[in-house]
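Re: the request from the purification team.
They wanted to know what the chain is likely to look like in 3D before they choose a buffer screen. I agreed to run a prediction and write the result into the notebook, where they can find it.
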Amino acid sequence: TAAFLLPILNRMLTSRAAAPDERGYTRVLILAPTRELCVQIADDVEGFTYHTDITSVAVYGGVEMGPQERALKSGVDIIIATPGRLMDHMRSKTGAFDKLDTLVLDEADRMMDMGFWPDVRRIVQVLPDTAARQTLLFSATMAEEVMKLADEIVVDAKYVQIGAPAGAAKTITHTAEAVPSAQKTEWLAKFLRRTAGPVLVFVRTKSGADRLARKLASFGLKAAALHADRTQVQRTQAVEGFKSGTYRVLVATDVAARGLDIDGITHVVNFEVPTSTDMYVHRVGRTGRAQATGTALTLVAPEELRALEALKRAVGIEMQG
């Protein structure tokens, strides 16, 4: 996040110092695919601008529109928004973007996966021409589909790749355990009792997240579920509770956990074998950050062994166990 926030804020402060009256309109729009990522970026903006007069607002669904409308009408400097809720405000003619000079699309690949790209196209159509606007697009993967969509909104783009494609941090230990599907929950509960630190568990379905979190809680483990069908309040409580240690285990679906930026996660557990290389890399990337060590554990039922072998070849990793 700091990779785009710090240069943007530096440019804004420099411009404002040269023209003190340059305020009262939105200059920066940051689009993010999920409410959680939107809130995290907004928190970072607030932290970086604490001793400045730069204003910002987070615009996302699941909460009342009134406070967001008032902030947009006041002409905040920076808007951090999910595409769907921003479209709601645009349909209500809330906010003005005629002087916008910077557009950021964070986790563009996930926005495409979640079906937000039509909204992104509509939003871009009402923004100033690309000649008057800098557009920054960030994506964990640069699949051909993402490249094509990027070309629609970015003119004469410069591509920058950080790290090896589809790579996992070298500080992560990859392990796999053969566990029959019917025994995975009990096996995981025993594993959690003999390990320390916060653990992020990925499951394929929303119902599976609820079911596993309830079962772990019945075993005396502090666990919460995170998925798209939870209310905004429930999602916030789950994430904040996991950050604070109220919950030691967060059971999440891929979409809901996208963009989570939580320090200190010691283990990432794949309750089922991930169905793609990108999915595996995204998941395990929640641990082993900033040179810290971490463990990625995949529970493998007999019927999943073939999928596991294909995944290992695709990612190019060795798994212990």
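For the purification team: The longest strand covers residues 172-178.
Please add any questions underneath this entry.
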